[in-house]
Structure formats: structure tokens, C-alpha cells
Sequence to fold (79 residues):
Amino acid sequence: MAQLESITNLALRLEADKTANFYSHGDAVQSWMDASGLNNDFTVVLGTAPTFAVNATPTGQPALLFGGAGGLSGPTMAS
Fold:
């Protein structure tokens, strides 16, 4: 995966490729760790957890698949 540029005042960074260290293809993702270093992690709330998919994008990158019956929730952040 290409390196992303550093962004000043970044509050949240979610990277599906980092999730690959913890999940296998088809696994339910119970939490998504914040890669910004600020611990703004997301966790499953009511409903169905998204699933982890390997090679899910046109460029072969991993992704989380949301089925619409649930989702992840994280901290409230000011804009």
C-alpha cells in the first residue's frame, strides 16, 4: 500500500490493511483500531459487525464490508 502523507491535526486514521494483522478473510470485525495514535478506536454497536475482505478493491487492497444491519461506533469528534 502506498504511504499516505502526514496530515496536521489528524484525529482519526482507519486502515483496513492494518486490520489484516488481526482478522482473516470473512471474519466479523469487532473493533477497528485508530492508526493515528490517538486511540479513537471504533467498536461494534447494535447489529451485525462488518466483515473483513482480502483483495476487496480493484487494486487488491483489503476492506471492511458493511451489510447495512449494524456498524461501528467511535468517539465523538469536534469538526
Observations:
- The first strand starts at residue 31 and ends at 32.
